[in-house]
Amino acid sequence: MRPIFLIGYMGSGKSTLGRAVSALSGLQFVDLDNYIEGRFHMSVRELFAQRGEEGFRQVERNMLHEVADFENVIVACGGGTPCFFDNMQYMNDHGITVFLDTSIDKLHSRLMRGRHKRPLIADKTDDELRQFIIDALAGRMQHYSQAQISFTADELECRSQISVTSHRFCQQLSIPFEP
Ligand code: S3P
């Protein structure tokens, strides 16, 4: 099976859902940020600090090309992955792309908790963060909307929601899983 690429804004649930679908289906899970961190022995924050965003995007593209060659994987992309170079086209050519459609309220509440490791938002106040999400999402939708499939990912807040949502994901994409 060709790779499944989960795309969507930071906090949309790509890693949470990807890990759960992996456990359910036996597909291997790859988190692109973790893959990059493992290869470069530094965090995404450190990579941004050392190479700037432009340098990070080059690395991200190269690593995306590597994982796109894997079989039977579900890949949680970074929020910006589809928005640079021809990455979106590349993913559409090499696998199945799924946009995680998550409400602004959910993105905001998840990112208020998880902003420290994300260099683009680490220094924002709660109010600034909300406006940043709204503006960034408006700019990025032109890329996200090229995904082959759109999947509602608001319900990922606790174990039971993650279970229901990952089952629904497998059903929607016809991925075999152990019930
Ligand atoms: C980014 C999202 C992050 C990470 C980097 C940049 C973005 O990944 O790749 O901080 O531009 O939206 P997550 O979406 O997994 O947080």
Structural overview:
The structure is a single chain. This protein is of the alpha/beta class and about 180 residues long. The chain has one domain (about 5-170): P-loop containing nucleotide triphosphate hydrolases (Rossmann fold, 3-Layer(aba) Sandwich). The chain has helices spanning about 15-25, 30-40, 45-65, 85-95, 105-115, 125-145, 160-175; strands spanning about 5, 30, 75, 95-100, 150. A five-stranded parallel beta sheet has the order 2-3-1-4-5, sandwiched between helices. It is globular, with a radius of gyration of 15 Å. It starts with a strand and ends in a 6-residue tail after the last helix. The mean pLDDT is about 95. Bound molecules: shikimate-3-phosphate (S3P). The site of shikimate-3-phosphate has 10 residues, from loops.
Secondary structure layout:
Layout: E1 4-7, H1 14-25, E2 28-31, H2 32-40, H3 44-67, E3 73-76, H4 87-94, E4 96-101, H5 104-113, H6 126-144, E5 149-152, H7 159-173
Parallel strand pairs: 1-3, 1-4, 2-3, 4-5
The structure holds shikimate-3-phosphate.
CATH superfamily membership: P-loop containing nucleotide triphosphate hydrolases
Number of strands: 5
Globally, the shape reads: globular
Would you give the CATH topology?
A: Rossmann fold
Structural class: alpha/beta
